Amino acid sequence: MRTQVGIIGAGPAGLLLGALLSKAGIDNTIVERQSGEYVLSRIRAGILEQTTVDALISAGVGERLLKEGIPHEHLSLSFAGQLHTIDLPKLTGGKTVTAYGQTEVTKDLMDHRLAAGRQTVYEAKDVSLHDLTTAKPRIRFTKDGTEHEIECDFIAGCDGFHGVSRQSIPKEKLQEFSREYPFGWVGVLADVPPVSPHAVIYGNSPDGFSLCSMRSMTRSRYYVQCPITDKVEDWSDARFWDVLRSRLPAETANAIITGPSIEKSIAPLRSYVSEPMRWGQLFLAGDAAHIVPPTGAKGLNLAASDVSMLAQAFAQHYAEKSNEGIDGYSARALRKIWRVERFSWWLTSLMHRFPDTEGFGQRVQEAELDYLMNSVAAQTTLAENYVGLAG
Ligand code: APR
Ligand code: PHB
Questions:
Q1: Buried-most residue among 112, 117, 263, 296 (CB within 10 A)?
Q2: Stated pTM of the model
């Protein structure tokens, strides 16, 4: 087999890259370790920046998103028993974000790919990358017991944090930066109307962080901060709803409609960046190269930003015979990534209770929240990062 761009991973990064390349007339094949159903069963965040919405529209997959996505013109922070709401378009020259689940984005991209007749190999086993520093890099894998090889011009590593792509780069060529946070999030998905259908609520209370989000007018997504050592079994539905309510202002807490969870999981919080994002003809994008804590909902948006830059670079290579975009990809992507890493780390630090923070750190956090609520400049900084920075 042969293709122009071989893509490892059919998460949002790999699928969106495939759609953008196909649109530019560039042949591509996706190789994914899991089944399509498994990929779709993973529940992730659901807030899209305008630039992500634009990338999906330009890839030809915006139709359902434009119909079913729910624009959020506000962002709410709750602390000290009060809810404070920030007007996003007012502070950002008209920008908003859109509530639309990552699962739906992935489904739209998969349907579009299938309809376009582009090749995706699901359930590929023992995926390995070869000859990365030559002009003909190769992907090998086993499918249904038979070995296959794809010869490519380029390989895009979109296979997430635990994928094979980053691991195929010699260790001494990479520099890794990471920070682990001393807590996790318990997340619950439930078929109940959201308490805040037009703004995500980020809550900081003496007992820890909480978050109110949604997938539709009848499906809600809620999270609470928990010790890193907790297991899902420690969180009955009843305990989850009690803790969530106890961490929000009374008016919000009383308005929450509870119901049985249809999904419940615990995720650790981590910041991670690996540099550079290129090795020979291999280019990393999305979680394969970086992780942000979910505070701020930047994971999917950052993956979309990477692959938009990468698709542009490949298009320039094929259409204009120029390698300027390809050669500049890593530096350009990392400049954006570090700004988003900074914001995600900052919002995480602002809104969580840190078990190891002493009185001084706590007072500084309270002072920062006080400053934020009384300064248009500080709110503008938050709003402009939340709706998404330009590349
Ligand atoms: N070979 C082939 N595919 C692989 C391999 C491998 N060795 N390892 C992992 N994969 C697949 C995974 O099964 C997954 O479907 O790569 C895909 C990576 O998808 P994500 O983890 O979703 O990463 P990405 O597409 O970069 O999305 C980034 O979406 O998943 C969220 O938290 C993530 O919000 C972030 C954004
Ligand atoms: C979600 O809807 O799952 C969500 C929203 C905002 C976040 C994180 C997750 O910051």
A1: 296
A2: 0.97
Decide if 336 is catalytic: no
| Residue in this structure with the two tokens 């780390």, named with its chain if needed | 345
| Residue listed under structure tokens 């998905």 | 189
Residues 214 and 316 grouped into a single domain: no
Active site residue 72: yes
Q: Let me know if residue 85 belongs to a domain.
A: no
6 torsion bin: left (phi>0), alpha (psi -120 to 50), beta (else): beta
The reply to whether 24 and 119 lie within a common domain is: yes
**Cα–Cα distance for residue pair 352/202, rounded to 1 Å:** 10
Each residue's pLDDT tens digit, 20-52: 999 999 999 999 999 999 999 888 889 999 999
Catalytic residue among 202, 222, 223, 329: 202
pLDDT single digits (tens) 360-389: 999 999 999 999 999 999 999 999 999 999
Q: Are residues 116 and 193 in the same domain?
A: no
C-alpha count within 13 angstroms, C-beta hemisphere, residue 62: 15
- How far apart CA 302 and CA 290 sit, in angstroms, is 9
Query: What residues does ligand 1 touch, defined as CB less than 6 Å away?
Result: 8-14, 31-34, 39, 44-45, 102, 124, 127, 158-160, 162-164, 286-288, 299-300, 303
Instruction: Identify the DSSP state of 69.
Output: -
If one counts every other C-beta atom within 10 angstroms of the C-beta of residue 46, the result is 24
3-class state of residue 232 by DSSP: helix
Q: Are residues 193 and 218 in the same domain?
A: yes
Tokens of 385: 């990062």
CA of 15 to the centre of ligand 1 (A): 10
* Distance separating alpha carbons of residues 385 and 301, to the nearest angstrom: 12
User: Which residues constitute the domain of residue 42?
Assistant: 5-71+98-178+270-347
> How far from chain centre, in Å, is Cα 145?
33
- Tell me the ligand closest to 301's alpha carbon: 1
Indicate which ligand has the atom closest to the C-alpha of 72: 2
Q: What single-letter amino acid sits at 332?
A: R
**What CATH code is carried by the domain that includes residue 33?**
3.50.50.60
pLDDT tens per residue across span 281-301: 999 999 999 999 999 999 999
In a shared domain, residues 12 and 56:
yes
Is 130 an annotated catalytic residue? Answer: no
Residues 292 and 359 in one domain: no
Q: Give the span between the Cα atoms of 370 and 354, in whole angstroms.
A: 18
